[in-house]
Amino acid sequence: MIDFKAIEEKWQKKWLEEKIFEPKIDEREKFYITVAFPYLSGHLHVGHARTYTIPDVIARFKRMQGYNVLFPMAWHITGSPIVGIAERIKNRDSKTIWIYRDVYKVPEDILWTFEDPKNIVKYFMKTARETFIKAGFSVDWSREFHTTSLFPPFSKFIEWQFWTLKKKGLVVKGAHRVRWDPVVGTPLGDHDIMEGEDIPILEYVLIKFILMENGEEIYLPAATLRPETVYGVTNMWLNPEATYVKAKIRSKGKEEVWIISREAAYKLSFQDKEIEVIEEFKGEKLIGKWVKNPVTGDEIIILPAEFVDPDNATGVVMSVPAHAPFDHVAIEDLKKETEVLLKYDIDPRIVGEISYISLIELEGYGEFPAVEEVEKLGVKSQKDKEKLEQATKNIYKAEFHKGIFKIEPYKGKPVQEVKDLIAKDMKDRGKADMMYEFAEKPVISRFGNQAVVKIIHDQWFIDYGNPEWKEKAREALARMKIYPESRRAQFEAVIDWLDKKACARKIGLGTPLPWDKEWVIESLSDSTIYMAYYTISRHMNRLREEGKLDSEKLTREFFDYLFLEEFSEKREKELEEKTGIPAETIHEMKEEFEYWYPLDWRCSAKDLIPNHLTFFIFNHVAIFRKEHWPKGIAVNGFGTLEGTKMSKSKGNVLNFIDAIEENGADVVRLYIMSLAEHDSDFDWRRKEVGKLKKQLERFYELISEFAQYEEKDVELMDIDKWLLHRLNRAIEGATKALEEFRTRTAVQWAFYSILNDLRWYMRRTEGRDDEAKRTTLRKLAEIWVRLMAPFTPHTCEELWEKLGGEGFVSLAKWPEPDPEWWNESIELEEDYIKNLIEDIKEIISVARLENARRAYIYTAKEWKWKVAQVVAEKRDFKASMSEVMKDPEMRKRGKEVSKLIQKLIKDRAFDFKRIDEEKALKQAKDFIESEIGLEIIINPDEDKGGKKRQAMPMKPAVYIE
RNA sequence: GCGGGGGUUGCCGAGCUUGGUCAAAGGCGGUGGACUCAAGAUCCACUCCCGCAGGGGUUCAGGGGUUCAAAUCCCCUCCCCCGCACCA
Questions:
Q1: A489 CB-to-strand B distance under 7 Å
Q2: Which of A83, A291, A391, A469 meets the CB 3.0–4.6 Å disulfide criterion with A373?
Q3: Complex-level ipTM beyond the 0.90 threshold
Q4: Which contacts of A683-690 are long-range, i.e. CB under 8 A and separated by 24 or more positions?
Q5: A738-747 pLDDT tens trace
Q6: Is the CB atom of residue A508 positioned under 7 angstroms from any atom of strand B?
C-alpha cells in the first residue's frame, strides 16, 4: 500500500515552507485567477469542492506554463445566516445542533461557544483553511482576509467602494416592498420564512367603486388582477359574513374614506397608508346597495357571495360574469336562491335581468368565454371550487395571450397591452390604487408570525437599472470570455433584467454604510470588487501584523490613488503623511494592483450568474478604468451524492474534508475533475471513487517502476514511436482542454488516454525488455507526471522526486508535443492492425470457424492505392474515372477500376493516407498470431477462397481455414 | 407569467458551435474468459436487433422540413430542470 496521506502531508508542508505559491511581481507574464470566496456557515462539501478545485487546477497548469500566477483566497462572513445560527444554538434549536454536531462534527466544547457568531466564524475559517491546504490548493495565503467590520482594512475598502458608487449616482434611496414580520418588525428573506417561501407577491389593482352615503363619496376598492375587465362589471360581491371596516385612508397627503375588509385595513397599513377605522360591520349591511363604476359610470348592485375571501386583498370584488367563471356561477346560484335575495330585500328580478357584457374576442369561444368554460368543465355551483379554479385559470390564460379587446377606446388591441394601459389610466386619474398581496397563504416567518407585505422607505439601492451603466456592463461582457460560452445568453438576459437592488439591511454582520451607519451593506453587495483588494492585501496583512496599520486612516483618497489614479511620487508622500504607511509601501501596493489587474478569470458555480457574477461585472465597469475590466468568467455545476441532491438540513452531505481524509486529496481532486465538464452537474459515487483510487495507485507504481529506467540514445521500434506519438496527442489534447477549463476532457487525455495507450503498448511489447522500451517508458514517465501534476499534485511531486526532477513538479515546465514524435502513419498502421484483428475475430465468430488453423491476409495491390488516391482528390465518379483512365495500365482492367471507384465513392473514402501495409503486417505478425491464435500467412501467391480481389487499401482481404 | 438551459443506446454521460469518418467516446452495471486453492484486484472480449466471411437492419423526446447525406441545421408539439432578488 502506498501511503498517500504521508505523501500529501510531506508536500503540503514543503509548499508552505518554501512559499512557492506566494508570487511577487517579476518579469514574467502574469495570470490572475480568483474564485468566489466561501461563506462560512458550515463545512464545504464535495459539491463545493469542484468550484475550488477547478481554479486550482488551472492555476497550477498556468504556473507550469511559465506564468506568474496569483491564486488568492479569503472568507465571506457578511450577512445574517451566521447570526441566525448563533441565535438558534443559543435557543438550543435541536435541528441546528444536530447539523453542527453530527453533520459537521463540531466538537461539543466548541459547539457551545457558537452562541457568539464570532466563534462560528473563527472555527470555520480555521477549518476551511485547513481543508484547502489539505486539498493541495496552491493558494497564496499571505493575502488571506475576511469581510465585515471585523476586518477593518477590508471594511475601509468597501466604504471606499460605496462612496465611489454614490458619487457616481449609482447608490440611491427609495421605497421597496418586502415580506415583513409585523410582530418582530424585520424584513424576511427566503431563509427567514418557515412556510410559504415560494409564494410570489402579486400586485392588485384596486378600482375605487363609488358609494354615495349622505351626499359623501365613499370608495369600495375592488381588488383585481384584470383591470381591463372594469368595462364588464355587472355587480359587486361582498361576503355577508365577513367583517368590513369603514376607514379614513391617508396616503400621499390625501384623505379618503374606504370600505374594505378588516384584514385588508391591517395589511394596507403596511403599504404607505395611514388607516383610521371609523366603524366595523358585517358585509351583509351593504348587500343590496348600489355603487357606481368609476370608469363606465354604471350603477351596479352589491350582491352576497361566499367565495369572497376577506383575507385576500381588500375583500371587495367586482363581478365580470362574461369573463370570470366564479362570477358567472355565483350569479347562477343566486338566481336559484331567491330566499337569500329576499333576506336582503333584493328584488330577484334584478339578478334575473343581469346581462353579461362581453369585452374580449377570443378564438374558439363565443361571446361569454367564462360561461362556455364552466359548461365544458361541468361546474355545478360555487361548491365546485377545484373545477372553478381550473376554469378561471384556463380563461385567464387564454384571454391574456390570445384575447382581443372589443371596447373603445382600446378596441382591436391585444388584452396583454390593454391591461396595463387601463390600469395606468385609472391610477393616473385617481380612480384606482394598488396593493401588494401574497398569491397564497399562509406565509409564516421563522418567528412563527403571519407575514405581510410592507413597503419600506429610506432603503438604499444600487441602481443596476441605470441605462448607461447597463450599456457599459454589456460592453464589458462582450469583451469577456465566458466558459462555457453557452452561458453568455444568460448573462445578457440578467444584465437586461437587473434593476434597483437593495444593498443594505439593518441586521447581520457587515460593513456599515459609511454615510448612514445604521444600515449594514448586505452580502451580495460587499463582494463585487474584492479581487482588487487581494492585490494589496499582502502588504495590508504585513503592516497589520507589525502593528503599523491604523485602519481609520485608510481614507477614500488612499484607495483612489491605489486603484484609480496614475503613479505619483508626490501623492505617495502625501498619503504617507495621512495614513502612516511608508510611501514606498504605498508605491509597492499600487505596483501590485497595476501588475495583477485586470483579473484574468473569475470562477464560480453557476448559481451565482443571476447575482454575484453579474454584479461583479457591473461594479467593475462602474469603478475601474476600462483596462482593468475583468477578462473572463468560468462557471461550473454542482454535485449530487449517490444520485441525490446534497442538503445540509437533511444531513445528506459529504464534507470535502471527510472525503479527503477517506480517499486522499489527489483521488478526490482527480475524481471531481474527471466527472463532469463545465456547468453540468456531477454525481459522487463511492464505488467509483474507490476504483479511481486503485487506478491512481497503479499510476504511482508504473511511474515508480519507469523511474528506475534510464534514457539511452537507442533506435526505437515502431511501436515505441507509436507510444510517443500518442503521448504527443495526449499533451496536445490536455493542453487545449485546460486552456478552455474543460477539466474532464483534460483528465481523459492526461490520464485515461495515456493509461489505455500504455496498456496496449504493454500488450504489444510483451516479452520485450530492451533499452528501446525502457527509454520509451522513461520518456513517458517524465511527461505523464507533469501532465498529471495539476490534478494530483502531491503524488506527482513524490514521483517527480523519484524521477530525479529538478525542484517542484508544481513549478516544472508543462510538456509540449515533441515535433519529432509526430508520426501519423505509425498511428494508422497500428489502427490497421487493430482493425484487422477485430475483423478476423468477427469472421471467426460469425462463420463459426472455431477450429480454424490459418488466416491468409491479402493486401491491396498498388493500382488500387492509386485509384484510391485519385478518388480522394476528385471525390466524384466521373472525374475520378477519367483521371484514372489516362493510365493505359488502368485501362486494361477498366471494369474492375470502375467498380472500385464506385465503392470508394459510396464509402466516402476521401481521407487518403498511405501506409505500408505489408511492412506493418510483418512487424505485427507474432502479435496478431498470439491475439487470434491462428497462423498468419501474408500475401501468399495462392488465392485462397478467391478472396484476393476483395482487398482494399486499409482493409486487407482475409481467408480463414 | 418572464428569463436561461435541457431531452442521446440498461443507467450516468460525451457528441451537437464547424452536417458525412456515428450504432454513436468514456464510465457504471451485465455476460463470458484469463489469472487464482478461492475471493478480491487486475487483464481480455462482448453488451440495439439479425447474420455459418469481415455484412445488413432499426435508433439519438414526438412530428414535419432542408440536403446526395442529420443525433447534428430549420419549424412545430410534448416533457424536464434552474433563476425571478434584497437572500447566501
A1: yes
A2: A391
A3: yes
A4: A683/A639, A683/A640, A683/A641, A683/A642, A683/A643, A684/A46, A684/A639, A684/A640, A684/A641, A684/A642, A684/A654, A684/A659, A685/A642, A686/A642, A689/A659, A689/A663, A690/A663
A5: 999 999 999 9
A6: yes
